[in-house]
């Protein structure tokens, strides 16, 4: 999460790929590195529009990155993005299948105030305050204070208490929250059950919204921290892609640790490979682990 947003100067994808190109419909795209900056260009048969890239949104080690462009003081979401699986550019999710009205729209989508608040609010630290953008104070990525609160308040409390380091003071503690509380906290960026239901987004596009998917699991218990986001994932460390690493989490309940939680009759190894299938998110060039834990039936429809 510390790399959820990168500056152009430090963006590894842009540094390692001095030139990226793609052809989408009638438009040709080119991202070209010049020194420590990168420019984003789109061309048709008549003209070319070039905008500087200001930020890379998304961790390149995960799915990929979408680029935030600037023109005449306005910010735009690039119409093509870098995808790790492709090692190249393809249409940004949400733009596939729609034809831009002109070359400016082909370059990117003009970001509204709400777009900027949501995107920078989740991908960066100190980028918003009371629903106002504070990009001049922005720290790229999700840093400690993004989740735990003000570092200044914490330091002041430490100083007033003569540097008693035994217990962190005035920082939000997440360890003792219930599953529901953690789900709602993480869901501020990863989307809550309530948000998805109100939006009516019940197709496979919601597979990347883990708190929502987890809530639909038969074993989900609002009060049991063993089924919370933090039970399986430590936000201070890289996400593990090894299925065996999650077996102890499953067996904490299904190994006899919770009444009514049956043990699997098939295996006690690599539980997530069966009960949390990886499914392709259209347009993402990436398979997400479906966090709706269940006994998967052959040829079943995607459970909304």
What does this structure look like?
With 304 residues, the protein is of the alpha+beta class. The chain folds into three domains: 5-133, no CATH class; 143-173, no CATH class; 175-289, no CATH class. 26% of the residues lie in helices and 24% in strands. It is built from eleven helices and 16 strands. It has helices at residues 12-16, 103-107, 113-123, 144-148, 151-160, 179-190, 193-199, 210-215, 229-232, 247-254, 271-275, and strands at residues 5-7, 19-24, 27-34, 37-43, 48-57, 64-71, 74-78, 80-83, 88-91, 108-110, 124-125, 128-129, 132-133, 139-140, 278-281, 286-289. Strands 1, 2, 3, 4, 5, 6, 7, 8, 9 and 10 form a ten-stranded antiparallel β-sheet that branches. A two-stranded antiparallel ribbon has the order 11-14. Strands 12-13 form a two-stranded antiparallel sheet. A hairpin with a 4-residue loop joins strand 4 (37-43) and strand 5. The longest helix is centred in the middle third of the chain and has 12 residues, at 179-190. The model has no long low-confidence stretch (mean pLDDT 90).
